[in-house]
Design a protein that fits this description.
Length: 708
């Protein structure tokens, strides 16, 4: 049977529905994502009083996962979030006359146009009593909407986003529909309208993450807890912590001593809630781990709060600190587990227990978990029958590698400390630079010659540490402020400029670049890469500016404080950003690839370089280690550590043409030289790496990459 065509008034209603469900939702989603990334939503909700703003279902959508999917948010929730967070400090979102007020025609701020989107949705769709809109009314509404969306598109384009809302709006307004399609859409619209009508009623219960008020029965409340799971229970734990009097000063003192938050974060926290939010952002605490909180409470003598952490962990299968007595016939082995504790739960710990039991060929009742302790990451304590201890201390290298793949870098039995990391990086030399106070940066020149800098002086040294440039003094900034060109000339950053020291000792200024922190000269094309306050700039070899890299394709700043920079053989630019706590990686065209945020709970990158295989080596000052990664940012190993190699706050490194690694450290004027790749193990044809002692088997399963 032939389809009956819709009337023009019915078509208006249908098109308005498509505009609301598709176009307006897309715009609000983009605006929210521009200001608040999904990964930050949980922390923002905790920081904000959302009581009476979000209903239970909306709260669950925002907090049930660490990275909520904004595509699942409807127009109502997107608007409420933008309005709520807009009042907190996003001044560009605030309407001229305030939220919920019809803007005047002369008011054209982005917040005013967001209000116009809300008004269109209400007047043309949400608050209608029938499924039709008169033609004259719809023309006026559509024209006003086009003007508002045009301004929003200009605003978003200025932020670096490629959007075309106007075309999507035009397509929706021209859409043709017949009665069969209308019936299908009608079901969806009626369902949505039913939900919206229910939202207008006073709900029996509203929840937020800082408090929970229940106006229904206790059964309803228990059901609410079950549905919300760990998110709400974790929030209630946070709420109990916030209420403790006198806790703020104690926590600030302990956090200052521990050094896990910087001074500005501690001093800027006006409440316990602010400190907890900082700990959440640093991933020191999470829904699945309260060990760090317990560590703080034990140090501050807060026994009651420590007990609440234990009760929460027992109810939610989360990690917590505890220790059982080791019974007769058992000895205790402590396994240090590296990584972000949010990635682990008790099931993972049981996997470790089962793996150890399998390695020792013992029965399940002969080994059990008897504690979890705080450490750089955490320590799992396992009680093992005494007769198996000698076997544990003499594991074959291949079996140790299986422990490393479970993120265990060492374990302890009494006074014995056994490393599972099979790194064969061996120190072959140590060179003392007598005229340097410490080693801030190293640039390789040619065999037997290096440029080395401390706080403000550049020295040319040979392989024994002898100074080769006594006849002239070169001043420079600290950090990664010098590099060697393809012609073996020195480039260095000083006094708002990039300067060149030729091999005959002549210094010339190539170009002026204020606030430059670090520099790298490409060994592939001679280009000069300079990292400054919030950008990386590419110049040619005579100082002509070729490229500026500062934002990703969504308009967000890539850099906060670049301090070291290098280029890989595929053209990718790797930049250590100390304040951001990440190595920022872009391709040769400046397109953002990813951030590498370390393999442990906190990461402070410094010196960075690449080797002949395209691998990247980066110093982690905080964890006293050198990370080695593949060119896609996949963590391969902790190449050098404090425990195995005595490394202390490494800051500078470079690799020479014989694959020797030179490492400088804070508060030391010595350069240690390591052999970590053997000449016979480098296959230039395939680009594969062959590590001594099967070192490549040690890559953990969970990469610590921050993809945006």
């Amino acid at each position: 049977m032939a389809s009956k065509l819709l009337s023009s008034e019915q078509m208006n209603f249908t098109r308005a529905g498509i505009v609301c469900l598709d176009v307006i939702k897309l715009i609000l989603k983009d605006i929210l994502n521009l200001h608040i990334k999904p990964r930050d939503m949980y922390c923002m909700i905790i920081k904000t009083n959302t009581n009476g703003v979000l209903n239970r279902h909306q709260l669950e959508l925002c907090t049930k996962t660490p990275n909520p999917d904004y595509d699942t948010f409807d127009v109502s929730l997107l608007y409420r979030l933008i309005r709520t967070f807009g009042a907190l400090g996003f001044k560009d979102l605030k309407p001229t006359q305030g939220w919920g007020i019809v803007p005047s025609q002369q008011h054209t701020e982005i917040g005013d146009d967001i209000e116009r989107l809300r008004i269109f949705r209400n007047e043309s769709f949400a608050h209608l009593r029938s499924s039709s809109i008169p033609d004259s009314t719809f023309r006026t509404q559509s024209q006003n909407l086009k003007i508002a969306i045009g301004r929003i598109q200009m605003f978003m384009t200025a932020q670096g986003l490629r959007v075309n809302y106007k075309k999507q709006l035009d397509d929706a307004l021209k859409f043709q529909f017949d009665i069969d399609d209308m019936e299908k859409l009608k079901i969806e619209l009626e369902t949505l309208l039913t939900v919206m009508n229910k939202e207008k009623k006073v709900p029996k219960m509203r929840g937020c993450l800082s408090c929970l008020r229940c106006k229904g029965s206790e059964d309803l409340q228990r059901k609410f807890y079950r549905e919300q799971g760990s998110t709400v229970r974790h929030a209630l734990l946070m709420s109990n912590i916030e209420k403790q009097r006198g806790l703020l000063a104690k926590l600030k003192t302990e956090l200052t001593n521990l050094g896990d938050l910087n001074t500005s974060e501690i001093d800027g926290s006006e409440s316990v809630k602010d400190l907890l939010c900082c700990l959440l952002q640093k991933k020191l605490i999470s829904n699945s781990n309260v060990i760090y909180l317990q560590h703080l409470f034990r140090r501050t003598g807060s026994k009651e709060l420590n007990q609440k952490c234990i009760e929460y962990a027992e109810g939610m299968n989360a990690l917590c600190f505890y220790e059982k007595h080791v019974g007769r016939g058992y000895d205790q082995a402590e396994f240090h587990i590296v990584g972000d504790t949010a990635d682990f739960d008790r099931d993972y710990l049981n996997d470790i227990r089962d793996t150890v039991a399998s390695m020792l060929e013992c029965q399940a009742n002969e080994i059990f978990i008897n504690g979890v302790k705080a450490a750089n990451s955490f320590i799992l304590s396992i009680a093992i029958k005494t007769r198996y201890i000698e076997k544990l201390l003499n594991l074959d290298p291949d079996i140790k590698a299986s422990l490393y793949r479970l993120h265990i870098d060492y374990f302890k039995v009494e006074d014995h400390k056994i490393f599972t990391d099979l790194s064969d990086a061996s120190q072959i030399d140590s060179v003392t630079i007598h005229n340097a106070s410490e080693i801030s940066h190293i640039s390789f020149i040619t065999r037997g010659e290096l440029w080395v800098s401390d706080f403000d002086t550049l020295l040319k040294v040979d392989s024994t540490g002898n100074i080769l440039n006594d006849e002239y003094k070169v001043r420079c900034y600290p950090l990664g402020s010098h590099t060697v060109t393809m012609d073996l000339d020195l480039l260095f950053v000083y006094d708002n400029g990039v300067h060149k020291l030729s091999s005959d000792g002549v210094i010339t200024t190539l170009f002026i670049t204020p606030k430059a922190h670090c520099i790298h000269s490409s060994r592939f094309n001679g280009n000069i890469l300079v990292g400054s306050y919030d950008e990386v700039t590419r110049y040619n070899d005579i100082g002509r500016k070729l490229q500026v890299i500062e934002k990703d394709d969504r308009g967000r700043s890539l850099y906060t404080a670049p301090i070291y920079i290098t280029e890989n053989k595929n053209g990718d630019i790797w930049t250590s950003d100390k304040i951001k706590g990440a190595v920022v990686v872009v391709d040769k065209s400046g397109g953002y690839r990813f951030d590498y945020t370390g393999c442990q709970s906190h990461f402070v990158p410094h010196g960075i370089c690449t080797d002949v295989l395209g691998q990247v080596l980066v110093c982690d000052v905080y964890n006293h280690s050198v990370n080695i990664l593949d060119q896609d940012g996949q963590f391969l190993s902790l190449l050098l550590t404090r425990e195995q190699h005595g490394v202390h706050r490494p800051t500078a490194l470079c690799v020479d043409d014989e694959h020797n690694l030179y490492l400088g450290q804070e508060f030391s004027n010595s350069i240690n030289v390591y052999k970590y790749l053997k000449d016979t193990n480098v296959n230039h044809g395939t680009g594969h790496v062959y590590y001594p002692n099967n070192m490549a088997l040690r890559a953990p399963k969970i990469p610590h990459l921050a993809w945006v």
